[in-house]
Amino acid sequence: MGRSHAAESGRLLVVDDNKVNRLLLGRGLEQHGHSVEFAENGVQALEMLRKGGFDLVLLDIMMPELDGYQVLEQLTTEPDLRDIPVIMTSANDELDSVVRCIEMGAEDFLVKPPNPVLLKARIGASLEKKRLRDQQRQLIRRFATPEVAEELLANGFELGGKFVDATAMFSDIRGFTSIAESQSPTDTIELLNTYYTLMFDAISGQGGTVNQMVGDGLMAIFGAPVPHSDHPLRAVRAALEMVELVQLFNQGQSAQGKAPIQIGIGIASGRVIAGFTGTQSRATYTCVGDTVNLAARLEAHTKVLGHPILIDENTWQGLGGEIPAIEQEATQLRGKSAAVRVFAVPLPAETPEPQGPR
Amino acid sequence: MAKSPVDISTLKDLVANTDMAFVQELIEAFLEDGREQIAAMRQSLASGDALVFQRAAHSLKSSSASIGALEFSDLAKELEMLAKQGNLPAAPEKLEQIASAFPTVEQALQAFQHGS
């Protein structure tokens, strides 16, 4: 008991019409610390699985009522069931059937009667894979909007990148280091958590995805992985809301005698290289390219100009006059050969001059 | 010396990996299942239902192999193949062969239960 930890044991369903097989498999699995339940045919198995809570299924192929193929087919059509790993249990002369099952989505197979060592290894590997997938799923849910998450979960991970037209956003807290130095670590972490929660709400509310958080800074992307043709507008709307939320947050801070925070946001639109980076077990949707670099430079430039939201020319054009922006002096930015046109987006409170795009 | 219809080392391994009470339970389950599957094969042969016949033979093949009745399992496998090929007319002779092998397997299993 001392050695096994939660990740290694699971709640398993053994599906087999033959009692000798059920007894043997069940006994082997219980010896490895798993809790085991049994179904005698496919219909019964699906009923039990729909009630939820199983980590893994060991599935016989040839059964009355509903056979192993039909159960597999049914599992793939039900969103709540399709991620439960299935290990086929077969006779050693059924390997062609096993291949078909693996093509249909089964994860692995075991020959009956199972060798105890093989049984332990295959079950352990499948449970571990499921744990990683569940973790990944949670990660996606946390870092992406629900639509993006659904898209990813439905279509899976393709680690390959592609060019997409999108809007990149960088945001961070001004003078965060001195804020952190002036208060307790607990207050600092609490401040960051509140800040991130607010920023995530604003960004995902506009269909954006937060794909990086480093210290007090974050990067978000609009228009990918789920395409939105109005991504510049969405990004700027999110930015305005972020600044507004920070102002509200500051009212609470000052009521508690705590320091207010200021944020700076840089936004740029154009072609980016987007895709998942990382490994199969831990992937992040990310974007790289000139557009992304430009957004980062503009964010840094907010310190110079004292405007909380700066956008590039492409983003400004993408606004189509729906949100006014004021052109600033063109600037030479690091990594750019020519001077770059820079626009500041005024906050609704600062009655804007009528200087929208012509 | 006549070859035992049950491979004793399979049973001994089972006892070593589990315990005698569990193996007894397993043997009971096999004997019960065996009687049922042989009856099911007779019935489906009469009604010409090759799929039910195949499933019964398959089940018997698998459970008998698990308790070490290897030759019996081979017979069941041959019956399964015949049914799979849709060749039920060729099955009656083999079915009787397996039906008469069953009591000898049963005796060998009982001897093992009482002997150890």
Structure write-up:
The complex is a heterodimer of chains A (358) and B (116). Chain A is of the alpha/beta class and 358 residues long. Chain A folds into two domains: 6-142, 3-Layer(aba) Sandwich (Rossmann fold), CATH 3.40.50; 147-344, Nucleotide cyclase, GGDEF domain (Alpha-Beta Plaits). Chain A is built from eleven helices and 13 strands. In chain A, strands 6, 7, 8, 9, 10, 11, 12 and 13 form an eight-stranded mixed beta sheet that branches. Chain A has a five-stranded parallel beta sheet with strand order 2-1-3-4-5, with helices on both faces. In chain A, helix 4 links the parallel strand 4 and strand 5 (108-111). In chain A, helix 5 runs antiparallel to helix 6 and helix 8 (185-205) runs antiparallel to helix 9 (231-255). Chain A is elongated and about 80 Å long. Residues 1-7 of chain A have low confidence and may be disordered. The longest helix of chain B is centred in the first third of the chain and has 28 residues, at 20-47. Chain B is mainly alpha-helical and 116 residues long. Chain B has helices at 8-17, 20-47, 50-66, 70-84, 92-115. The two termini of chain B are 21 Å apart. Chain B has a single domain, classed as Four Helix Bundle (Hemerythrin (Met), subunit A). At the A-B interface, helix 1 of A face helix 2 and helix 3 of B.
